[in-house]
Design brief:
Layout: H1 3-16, E1 20-21, H2 46-49, E2 59-67, E3 83-92, H3 97-109, E4 121-126, H4 136-145, E5 152-155, H5 157-160, E6 161-162, E7 169-180, E8 199-212, E9 218-231, H6 232-239, H7 252-262, H8 270-290, H9 302-320, H10 328-339, H11 345-348, H12 350-384, E10 389-390, H13 392-402, H14 406-415, E11 419-420, H15 422-440, H16 453-473, E12 479-484, E13 489-494, H17 501-517, E14 521-527, H18 528-533, E15 547-553, E16 557-560, E17 575-584, E18 587-594
C-alpha cells in the first residue's frame, strides 16, 4: 500500500464509522505565538478538544501536513523528517477508550484494511503514578482483542501521558501502537516502547480523561475526548517492509531528481547518501511551506528563518555532492507534481515556490562567496600562529555573521594546514541553538495561546481591524495571519504600499467607534456558500469544513472563524495602533494594543 492508498483507506474506514471528514489546515497557525508551524494533526483541533462545539459534529477524521523543527540536525538518518503527514480521528465527547482502541485495532489488523499480522503488534499504556492510577481500562481492551500480556508495556508519564495545553486543563493517558520490525531484541527487557529499533511506533490514541486544577488535582472530565495520530510516512515504511522512510515511493522520485543533479547513484556512499536524504527532506519541507496559502518567504526571523535554514542546508549538502548551479527548484517541481493531488495548493502556488527557491539559493551562493572572501582576509594572521589553530570564536563569527557553514570553514582551513578549535565553536553554536530553539519551537497550546480575557478581546479586535482596513484601503485587503498574546496583537494583511498617517488614524477611529457602540457578538453555523452569500469574509486559500461558524459583530463585521470572542465589545477598551510596517512582498503588518 502506497501513501495515496493509505490516505484514502484511512478516510474510508473512519467515514464508515460515522466520522465526518474535515479539512486539514495551514502549516502556519493563526493566533498562536507559541509555535511557528502546525506540529501535529491535533494542533488545529485543540479548541474543540478544550470544549468548543465543532460544526461537523462529534466524530471527525482528516489528514494534516505538519512541520517539526526541533530535529532538523537529526535529519539525514533513516527516519527523521522535518515535514510529514499525519492521519487523525477524533471523538469530541462521543466514544472513549474502548471504541478508539477497537477501531485502531480493526484498521491495523483487518485484512480488509492494513492487514498487519497480530503477532507483530505491540502496545504501551500509562503505568500510573501517585496522582493518576494505572490505565488498566486500556490494557484490558487490548487483552480482549488478543494482544498478549508480554506485548503490553506499561510506561511512565514521560512516554504515555498527554499534558494539559497550559499548566491547567484537559489531559490524560495515551496508548501507543508499535510494530515489531523483526529485529533481535536489545535485551530481556526489550518491549514495545523500547528505543533500540526493534519496535517502531506508528499510531497514538490520546484519552483526554482529566482536568488538572490550579492545585494540581486531576478531576475526571464530564466530557471525555479522544485524539489520535498516525504518521503516513512511517506507516508506509512498515507496510512495505522497509527499514527507512526514504526507501518508499514517497521519496524515490525526489531521490532520482537529486541523483540526476549530482550525477551520483544513491546507495553508493554512506556519507553522500546522508546528504541526499537531507536535500530530499529539506526541499520537500520548503516546498510545502512556500506552497501554503499563508506562505512566508525566507527571512531572519520566525518561520521565515526556519525556511531559510532548510533551503541553505539543502544547498550546502548539494555542494558536498558536487552540485554547483541552481538545483532546488527542479527537485521542488517533482514534489509539486507528486503531491498536488491531496494538496492542490502546491500547484496553485507553483510559480511562487520556484521563484523563491531560486532567489534564496542564488542569495546563499553569493553568501558562500562572501564567506570565502572573509576567510581569505583572516588567513595571513591565522598562518602566523605557530600552533596553526583557528579559534572557534572566529569560525562561529563566519557562521553567525556571514552564514558561512562550519564544514566549509573546516575545508578551507584544512587546505591551509590549519585546524579549528571545534570545542570552542560547539560551545558558541550550542548557545545560539538554545536561543533559536527557545524562540522557534515551543510547546503548542492550540487556537489562542490562552483563552483568557485579554487574548479573547484581542482576537475579537482582529475582526474589527480587518473590516476597518477594508473600508479605508479597499476590498483587496485580506487577512494574511495574526499573532495574539494577552499583551498585544499583530495583524498581517494584503496591501502593496505603506499606510499614511491619515489612513491609520481613520482605521483606529472606525474600530474605536464600534467599541463605543458596544455591539453584540453573535454566532451561527451554516454552509460556506451560505456564509459567503450572507456577506461573511472567509480567508482566501483557507480550507474550510462543509459547515462553518460565522461570527457577526452587530451590523459592522461578519467573518467565518472558529472563535472565541467577547459577547459585547464595549468592554474591550481603547484600540491603539502602535506600528505599521512591511511584513513581506505585498503584505503589511499592524501591531496594536487595547488600553
Amino acid at each position: 500500500m502506497n501513501a495515496d492508498e493509505l490516505r484514502l483507506k484511512y478516510l474510508e474506514f473512519f467515514k464508515s464509522k460515522a466520522h465526518a471528514q474535515i479539512q486539514g489546515k495551514s502549516l502556519l497557525p493563526d493566533n498562536d505565538p507559541t509555535v511557528l508551524f502546525t506540529t501535529a494533526g491535533m494542533h488545529p483541533l485543540v479548541p474543540y478538544l478544550l470544549g468548543q462545539e465543532h460544526p461537523a459534529g462529534t466524530r471527525l477524521v482528516d489528514y494534516q501536513k505538519c512541520i517539526r523543527t526541533g530535529d532538523i540536525d537529526a535529519v539525514g538518518d533513516a527516519s527523521h523528517l522535518t515535514f510529514f503527514e499525519m492521519l487523525g480521528n477524533w471523538s469530541l465527547g462521543d466514544y472513549f477508550k474502548e471504541g478508539a482502541i477497537e477501531m485502531s485495532f480493526e484498521f491495523l489488523t483487518s485484512p480488509q484494511w492494513l492487514g498487519i499480522p497480530l503477532e507483530r503488534l505491540g502496545v504501551t499504556v500509562f503505568e500510573g503514578d501517585a496522582t493518576v492510577p494505572r490505565d488498566e481500562e486500556s490494557a484490558m481492551v487490548w487483552k480482549r482483542l488478543g494482544i498478549p500480556e508480554d506485548r503490553i508495556s506499561y510506561r511512565p508519564r514521560a512516554d504515555n501521558w498527554w499534558g494539559p495545553a497550559g499548566t491547567t486543563g484537559p489531559c490524560g493517558p495515551d496508548s501507543e501502537m508499535f510494530i515489531d520490525m523483526e529485529k533481535a531484541p536489545c535485551g530481556p527487557d526489550c518491549a514495545p516502547g523500547c528505543s533500540c529499533g526493534k519496535w517502531l511506533e506508528n499510531w497514538n490514541d490520546v484519552f483526554m480523561q482529566y482536568n488538572k486544577t490550579a492545585e494540581g488535582v486531576y478531576e475526571p472530565l464530564a466530557r471525555k475526548c479522544v485524539d489520535t495520530g498516525m504518521g503516513i510516512e512511517r506507516t508506509v515504511t512498515i507496510l512495505k517492509g522497509r527499514q527507512s522512510v526514504y526507501d518508499t515511493e514517497i521519496f524515490s522520485p525526489i531521490i532520482k531528481a537529486v541523483e540526476k543533479a549530482a550525477a551520483y547513484t544513491y546507495g553508493s556512499d554512506g556519507e553522500k547518501d546522508k546528504s541526499v536524504r537531507i536535500i530530499c527532506d529539506h526541499v520537500r519541507a520548503s516546498t510545502f511551506i512556500l506552497g501554503d496559502p499563508k506562505a512566508v518567504s525566507p527571512s531572519n526571523v520566525g518561520a521565515g528563518y526556519v525556511l531559510r535554514r532548510l533551503i541553505r542546508r539543502a544547498v550546502r549538502h548539494g555542494r558536498k555532492l558536487g552540485i554547483t548551479g541552481l538545483v532546488l527548484s527542479p527537485i521542488a517541481q517533482v514534489i509539486v507534481d507528486q503531491m498536488s493531488g491531496p494538496y492542490p495548493e502546491l500547484a496553485e502556488h507553483q510559480g511562487y515556490i520556484i521563484e523563491e527557491l531560486d532567489k534564496e539559493e542564488q542569495k546563499f551562493l553569493e553568501t558562500l562567496q562572501k564567506g570565502e572572501h572573509e576567510f581569505e582576509k583572516l588567513l595571513p594572521n591565522l598562518l602566523k600562529d605557530p600552533r596553526k589553530i583557528m579559534s572557534g570564536r572566529l569560525a562561529f563569527k563566519l557562521y553567525d555573521t556571514y552564514g558561512f557553514p562550519i564544514e566549509l570553514t573546516r575545508e578551507l582551513a584544512t587546505e591551509q594546514g590549519l585546524t579549528i578549535n571545534r570545542a570552542e565553536f560547539d560551545e558558541a553554536f550550542k548557545k545560539h541553538q538554545e536561543l533559536s530553539r527557545a524562540g522557534n519551537e515551543q510547546v503548542f497550546k492550540g487556537g489562542l495561546v490562552d483563552q483568557g480575557e485579554m487574548s479573547v478581546k484581542y482576537h475579537t479586535a482582529t475582526h474589527l481591524l480587518h473590516k476597518a482596513l477594508r473600508m479605508v484601503l479597499g476590498a483587496h485587503v485580506a487577512q494574511k495571519g495574526s499573532n495574539i498574546t494577552a499583551e498585544r496583537m499583530r495583524f498581517d494583511f494584503s496591501h502593496d504600499a505603506p499606510m499614511t498617517r491619515d489612513e491609520l488614524e481613520q482605521v483606529q477611529a472606525i474600530v474605536n467607534e464600534q467599541i463605543r457602540r458596544d455591539l453584540p457578538v453573535t454566532m451561527g453555523v451554516m454552509s460556506l456558500d451560505e456564509a459567503t452569500a450572507s456577506g461573511a469574509i472567509a480567508l482566501f486559500g483557507e480550507k474550510y469544513e462543509s459547515q462553518v461558524k460565522v461570527y457577526s459583530i452587530g451590523d459592522f463585521s461578519r467573518e467565518v472563524c472558529g472563535g472565541p470572542h467577547v459577547e459585547h465589545i464595549g468592554s474591550m477598551g481603547t484600540f491603539r495602533i502602535q506600528k505599521e510596517q512591511s511584513s513581506s512582498a505585498g503584505v503589511r503588518r499592524i501591531r496594536a494594543v487595547l488600553e
